[in-house]
Amino acid sequence: MPSSTTELIKSKLDIVDFLRGYLNVQAAGKNFKAPCPFHKEKTPSFMISPDRQSWHCFGCGLGGDIFGFVMRYENLEFGEALRVLAEKAGVELRRLDPAEHKFTGLLYELNAKASQFFQSALKSFAGGKKYLADRGLQPETIDEFELGWAPNEVEALTTHLLRAGYAPEDIVRAGLAIKTERGMFLDRFRGRVMFPIHNHFGRVVGFTGRIFPQFETAEGMGSAKYVNSPETPIFNKSRLLYGFWKSKNPIREAGSAFLVEGQMDFLMSWQAGIKNAVASSGTALTPDHLHTLHRIAETLILSFDNDAAGSAAAERAIDLAESADFGVKIVAFETFKDPAEAAQAGANILLEAVANATPAPRFYFDKYLPKAGAFDTNKRESIKNLRIVIRKIKQISSAVEKDSWFKALAKRTGVEERVLLEEAEKVDVGRESVAKDDDAAPLPKKYSRRELLGEQLLRVAVARNDFSSVDDCMPHFAPVHRSILGILKDGKRQSADPEIDNLMNFIVLGSADLPASEVDILKSELMKEEGRDRRSELVAAVRVAEETGNEAVLKKALEELNDLSAVREA
Ligand SMILES: [Zn+2]
């Protein structure tokens, strides 16, 4: 990607204004601050620099520019982030980069065209409209989520797209057509009610097609009940959440998300007034889905189909979500199959069920333990089940919550809490865990004391906007700080070297003045550290010179070592 494109986009978007759309940004002197969206915190340590058009979090060590923010926050690849930001900045990518346009731009275009085609086909198909109405969907919901109809013909969409001038290979690449062995192009979706899948910014990137009942058993039709678009460069199933483009803000506001299994569950929940809903469509819940949600929600309310498969899926999702540090609640239906059915019976039924969702440990109590007072410690089966529940509680990451659930478990089983805790010590949690923000918050690199001292001195200089005050440190700074001081003295705040730029980010955003007496201590410590570093370099040089018999080098190194010792002893 030519860097001129990214520079052009950056010049048109102000990072502070942009981040206001995501975070609660407050002024902090020349800079701005906000609570970090990438780690949990109460006092903001996420700093934004309008000068540098960059951000840095002093809590978790992450930082970067507007692209880095969008990629991390929205879970996007660079190419996707580029499209999103280009659109926001009003920069047309097609003209800037034909290759990029050919690669992903066409896929967006084709999916959008297909969605329009399916929508207008539904408008003229009474049977399809009746089917959706029978399932409880209102016309406004159908319009809002752009549901459609794929005619029961071999190549209706393909012909439409070919006529519009698209190449057959691109239609296949977009996942809309299939090429047969004999080289014919067939529509992937035929005789199906179409649910377009939007990415988190509201662009159609794929579809789920549900077979129309009257074709369900018809000869020659693919008998699959659901057909999904294949993965493409713009459609990543394990990351996309259905409905998230609409429910992002309601989820952020509620601090919780109602996670359902299918598109119908989502649409019916939305229609019933549950706007913080989202669905993991066409795939099981993944750690990536959870990462996306965890940035804006602390609580997950899970709902799964009321059958054995649904119960197993629920258990897996609970474990995954709890190890990712969500508070988890479960909505279980006794008489309805799923949230869609409950909502169809009455919006209030679903609203009440969600409001009365059961905390996850309670769900396990009910699944594995008899009612209070009926627990029998003499049965092997009960002990086995008790251990399962203990293991589940042990997985909760909040210690406070864990403690209160052990108390509740003691009450439920009549087994003393002390004994339960003892048992918990023995139970092995061997779980499939979501590494807690492992990739989101890499451990900051270890810095030497000399580097830390240099950094602090540079922060003081930036705060005072007086770089001559650290001129005397120049020979003692670590090489990277020498370069940074040079750049800062030139009046610049950026470096083309990403590693240096990253450190500058840290220094500029962390600028802080100190009293002169402390600055003097820092300086003398820096000199000592530099002396120590130089000494170990010389000792190593002496060893090499001795081994290789290089007398000139040996002599020079020994002399310098002597000088260093003289300075130290003076
Ligand atoms: Zn952070």
Automatic annotation (TrEMBL):
Zn-finger segments (CHC2-type): 36-60
Gene Ontology molecular function: DNA binding; DNA-directed RNA polymerase activity; zinc ion binding
Catalytic activity: ssDNA + n NTP = ssDNA/pppN(pN)n-1 hybrid + (n-1) diphosphate
One GO term describing the cellular component: DNA-directed RNA polymerase complex
Pfam family, one: Toprim_2
One example of a Gene Ontology biological process annotation: DNA replication, synthesis of primer
Keyword DNA-binding: yes
Cited PROSITE patterns: TOPRIM
Cofactor note: Binds 1 zinc ion per monomer.
UniProt xrefs under PANTHER family: DNA PRIMASE
Domain commentary: Contains an N-terminal zinc-binding domain, a central core domain that contains the primase activity, and a C-terminal DnaB-binding domain.
Protein family (similarity comment): Belongs to the DnaG primase family.
Record's subunit section: Monomer. Interacts with DnaB.
Role summary: RNA polymerase that catalyzes the synthesis of short RNA molecules used as primers for DNA polymerase during DNA replication.
Protein's recorded name: DNA primase
Gene: dnaG
